[in-house]
């Protein structure tokens, strides 16, 4: 360690010393580049002088660190400001949408259906009818003023139910009203209330019929739904071929013959609606072309949830006698009374048959009572000659014997969408012969 002694200093002053670290590198740097080496300043005070301080100058590295920190802080401030602006804009849009909905309600337009706690991927629990202590438990926010509903005409009837066209509210909005006939049983009422309960659990979806509300405080019980003027898809398909269908409830008729794109689009929309129901853990149990409704612009929507049930577990087991759509049912439902989303997939394959044969009844010429025996032998409907092998293979995927081997509705959506986007012919309507597909069974 080097020592330096400085003599002859004044006793009443202080002195500043600069101490450099000298070596060959610093000497070369000073000589060639005029760079002075770093130093430390030391202030020394002698007796009688005022206290002094030792200062260490900032180095170039310290300056760069400060600059980088300033940049980081500035960037973080900008990002924070952007986040605040985005959140504020989102809040503004939500508030604006809420205000517009409130204005619609004030103007006596169709009531906005709301369900507190609706969860897209949560279980939809079906309550037993005994759990309902009073009708308020069922209607709550969906309850409508019966006096604002004016029935216009009867659209169609079933064994125990009927559907009418009606006008609702001061805005005279067209709606469909489902009610029971006078000969309906208590079981029919329970099925109707179960249908209402299922529909209340669903958020609005473009390919599922929307529930508007209900009137259940006294008889007759009414379920009010959105109105689709072309009626059920089965009758729509047959009318597009020029055939009359007395079952069809539509006020309007197709204005032209259907194209391959129309048929593929129908199949895709039905798969999309069923994919949503599957996500909601709702099994339809009566998926058929007659239970799909057609609206403006050829939009298809899943309807008729009379047999629908929410899945508390993976499998729903039928415990009561019911009128069953045999020709649309899979083996596990026919033989064991068990239903899952994969059972609806089987039914979707039958609906594809109905759509692409443009209204032909499934298992043509076979009575419903013989279908179960045919399925036990492994029988499946053969490929119509105007349908491509690739399209037919999607149907047969739905008709796999074991439910777990059937595709999901999400996969079916993608598969049909791909056919729609291709520039190939999958439904050759030029070779379609109308007289080959005139087996129009009575619905069983």
Secondary structure: elements and pairs:
Blueprint: E1 14-20, H1 24-33, E2 39-45, H2 60-106, H3 136-139, E3 149-157, E4 161-168, E5 173-180, H4 186-200, E6 211-215, E7 222-226, H5 233-240, H6 260-279, E8 282-283, E9 292-294, E10 300-302, E11 309-310, E12 316-317, H7 331-336, E13 338-339, H8 341-356, H9 371-376, H10 389-398, H11 409-421
Antiparallel strand pairs: 1-2, 3-4, 4-5, 5-7, 6-7, 8-11, 9-10, 12-13
Helix pairs in contact: 6-8, 6-11, 8-10
Quickly list its features.
alpha+beta; 444 residues; 14% strand; 13 strands; Phosphorylase Kinase, domain 1; 4 domains; two-stranded antiparallel sheet; elongated; five-stranded antiparallel β-sheet
Shape: elongated
N-C termini distance: 108 Å
Order of helices and strands: EHEHHEEEHEEHHEEEEEHEHHHH
**What is the number of domains?**
4
